[in-house]
């Protein structure tokens, strides 16, 4: 007995829709490079630690997709070949009970997957959180509602004996100037509520606690930046009214440019009688040929006026 024309047409229509959908997915996927696809939405890292975490994430997602494809395949196979058919007597399908090999497979495989995942999680975490006893650069990061202060306690000091420091304001995004190819330690502390230090290109985020020693919080971490550039930094912990505007910018410079920056920050501006600010030091370096990399203002984010009286009824 042949298949009715209406049923055959319906099946062909479904196949055509699936083919069109697959074609659209294939066309859209060609807009992404292989490297972008394997990052699965993660930003391109600028530190070895970021690359290590991205690699771990990629293989974790691939493993999850493999398990997902197997599960989806079994579900679709069951739906396609074991569904109730019209005109047949309703009866239970063949039952499989006390199938020892199948039970061992269903228990053993997940245990192996969890153990493998735990192993690579632990090894990746140990690499990312590793610290050297004598880092090349130390930065004290102080978070407050709703901005940041960056100081360099181990670098040269100003003529007044104070450490080099940069403080953000409602009109100026603070610049965290760092060297490439040097081990950097970040010491985090908050003066009020819990904040979070996050630079997407670091693929790393850590909470900034008011009293880290009392909260059993490791308030420091280290990394090495691979290349020059400007990278936006954000607070990733809801901390109040202007949390979304609590941004900063990491400015990564080559070691020679960073040394020049530190040297300028310890000198006095003859016009103001005060040590050069971060913007003034970078302006001088830009005039010396540093280029856009030494822009005195942030290039990845803009300041936000926190004066609520500036708003009107129309927004």
From TrEMBL:
Enzyme superclass (EC): translocase
Entry EC number(s): 7.1.1.9
Protein name: cytochrome-c oxidase
Annotated localization: Membrane
Superkingdom, natural source: Bacteria
Organism: Prauserella oleivorans
Pfam families assigned to the protein according to its UniProt record, in alphabetical order: COX2
Family stated for the protein in its record: Belongs to the cytochrome c oxidase subunit 2 family.
Keywords: Copper, Electron transport, Membrane, Metal-binding, Respiratory chain, Translocase, Transmembrane, Transmembrane helix, Transport
PROSITE patterns reported for this sequence: COX2, COX2_CUA, PROKAR_LIPOPROTEIN
InterPro entries: CcO_II, CcO_II-like_C, Copper_CuA, Cupredoxin, Cyt_c_oxidase_su2, Cyt_c_oxidase_su2_TM_sf
Reaction(s) catalysed (UniProt annotation): 4 Fe(II)-[cytochrome c] + O2 + 8 H(+)(in) = 4 Fe(III)-[cytochrome c] + 2 H2O + 4 H(+)(out)
UniProt domain Cytochrome oxidase subunit II copper A binding: residue ranges: 134-264
Membrane topology term: Multi-pass membrane protein
Reported function: Subunits I and II form the functional core of the enzyme complex. Electrons originating in cytochrome c are transferred via heme a and Cu(A) to the binuclear center formed by heme a3 and Cu(B).
Disulfide bond listed as a keyword: no
